[in-house]
Amino acid sequence: MELILTEDIENLGEMGEVIEVADGYGRNYLVPKGLAVEPTVGNRRRYEKVRREISKKKEERRKHARDIADKLDGLTLSFVRKAQEEHHLYGSVRTGDIVESVKDETEIDLDEASVRLDGPIEELGQFGVEIGLYEDIHANIKVNVMEEEEEETEEEAEEKETE
Q1: CATH number, domain at 129?
Q2: What pLDDT does 90 receive?
Q3: pLDDT at 148
Q4: 140-158 pLDDT per residue, tens
Q5: What pTM does this model have?
Q6: How far apart are CA 17 and CA 4, in angstroms?
Q7: What is the pLDDT of residues 78-137, one digit of tens each?
Q8: How many domains does the chain have?
Q9: Is there a single domain that holds both residue 79 and residue 138?
Q10: Helix, strand, coil shares of the chain as percentages rounded to 5?
């Protein structure tokens, strides 16, 4: 059975696409749920127009994502954290910290889900982080985690001055 999808369906197709499915699946599930329609001449025209509009919007989003990727690629963010002797951090660097730092540095708002970290960064060092922007467009940034210098107490500062 040939049908036109009225919305995107994972593993089946995108809105406006003409698909071939089993008669029972189309007649008993897709059409009654409003997920597909018969491929009449009017429906073909209507969904072809919708597909062109969607395609245009996707291309605009793609261009916007490429522009952001160009701005972010190679960006190095620095974080200062307290660490133990084994270079393990007391506090970690999380996706929210990275999003906030990117916003401060570049004024670009990112979604936390776009920051691809396996888990929080819990050690000192430099780490590569991928930012997923749109479909296959991503940017690579560096996150540098440095140890916080312990501040000298007033007594230690006075002792150094008298020496």
Answers
A1: 3.10.430.100
A2: 82
A3: 82
A4: 999 999 888 765 445 555 5
A5: 0.67
A6: 6
A7: 999 888 888 788 888 999 999 999 999 999 999 899 999 888 888 998 999 999 998 889
A8: 2
A9: yes
A10: 40, 30, 30
User: Do residues 39 and 80 both lie within one domain?
Assistant: no
The more confidently predicted of residues 151 and 13 is: 13
Q: Hey, what are 150's tokens?
A: 């312990």
Range of the domain at 97: 69-147
Q: How far apart are CA 74 and CA 66, in angstroms?
A: 14
Neighbours of 143 (CB within 10 A): 21
Query: What is the helix (H) or strand (E) element at residue 116, kind and residue range?
Result: strand 115-116
Closest CA to 146 of 115, 123, 130: 123
Q: Quick one: 43 and 79 in the same domain?
A: no
40 HSE (CA, 13 A, CB side):
5
pLDDT greater than 50 at residue 19: yes
Residues 119 and 94: their CA atoms lie apart, in Å, by: 8
Range list of H helices, 26-153 = 41-72, 95-106
Q: Rounded CA gap, 24 and 109, in Å?
A: 46
